[in-house]
Amino acid sequence: MPSQIRNLKRKLSGFAVITLLSCALAALSFHLAWFPDLEGATWDWRTRYIARRAQPDPNIKIIAVDQHSLDFYAAAEDSVMLWPWPRSIYGAIVEYLRMAGARGVAFDILFSEQSFSGVEEDQQFADSIAGAMPVVQAVALQSSKARNAEDPRLELLRARQLESERSTNFVSRLLNSGDLPEYLSAVMPVRPLLEKSHAFGSVTSSAGQESGELFRFAELGGALNGIPILSLPFALYNGAVPREQQRFNPADFVTGDGRLILRFFGPTGSIKTYSSVAIIQSYANILEEQAPAVPLAEFKNALVFVGLTAPGLMDIRPTALSSNFPGVEVNATALDNIQHQRFIRMLPDALELLGIALFVSALSALSIFVVSLRNQVVLITSVLVIFALAAFKAADLGYWVPIVPFILGMLFSILSSQAFMYQLEGKQHRFIKDAFKFYVSPAVIDKIIEEPELLALGGERRELSMFFSDIAGFTSISESIEASKLVPLINRFLSAMTQVIQKTGGTVDKYVGDAIVAFWN
Asked: Is the CB of residue 81 less than 8 Å from the CB of residue 287?
């Protein structure tokens, strides 16, 4: 008994130390340079799993400047329709959406240069915007002070932003949820669009295609010399959704770096997308009092993005679902997440640490206190399977459980526990196993290891069940079989008998020719 108590105390001490070190290593992993990339890769697996398990809002739609539209107009005899298109094309799209009763439209296209057809066309486009539903124009915020830092349009942009921000509480809720990154200048729309557009949204992203980083996040926006400019999907939500219907609170979802984790719905095309040429032709049909190719009812109460999807126009963003995911669909996905509060949440830090502590404690306990290696493997595998299922189920419910810290804690816990037990078991235990494994049942060996004092000189007096067995007629058998065949026969018999004895808890005392002597205590 004293040796059992000493052994238990050593195991408890080792368990406590290994668990604490495993938790510390897991917590430290959050601050390692390679953690975001590795953890991001594990999230990409879960993103693919949860995609298509929810359907996007059918009232969020995309009008795409796709390859089909470019090819269609490139083949036309009128060279005016070559890319970049005249602004009248976009004016026609706005007019069509106004007729359809769309709630709002955001252009994921920068109109920063004067139209090739002249400033008059820019003005016509601006006039079509002025009489329409809310229209949001794209702005590209820049960290460096560009040549246009003194551009008078900057002051106009700031003034328009201040004017629009005062009319809603949404921006104040957004600003309270995280600090917006500061920018010094911006690539802006031409002046007529600045004057007539209802709002402006940033299309600047902190994720970079050049570094190979996948797009997993939506941006809140940025601050241009202290003036907040929402990202494009937030600006459309702010401008097109009435205040009394705005239920989204960014503070519920924002991460520590002021971004929000997107929930995607599948590969390219998961959000309803229309070719721009179909919309333009439909508008022409309406003017000619003909049935439009795309019925106006398709866009009733819709929130619409107009953007580029043609590969040659370079608005492609790699995601976990596709290496050629259109940027406009990323923004449409973000708007759906805003509208239905479907952004992915990070677990609170305290809950993450509690989960890690419970996880590594279970693994350490199984590695130290479960003697049978087979039972260890079964139980540890069960814990890992349960954790993996829980992580994927959490993703489906909208939570990002960090996997990398758990994996690091698991590896350290199991390896350290095995090393600790090997050291604790020591030479005496291995000697006992090696010395008795051919004569004594595993259960008896385990008991001797647990209580080494049982091996005291002089032994112990007790009543035993004895067993004596030999082969009937062995003398006649041995005389009729060659010695080279008799030895394997005897070995097979004795091996089989020994296995039966040990399985029932017996101990082999000796072999005498064809006889075997055993006992049970």
From this structure: no
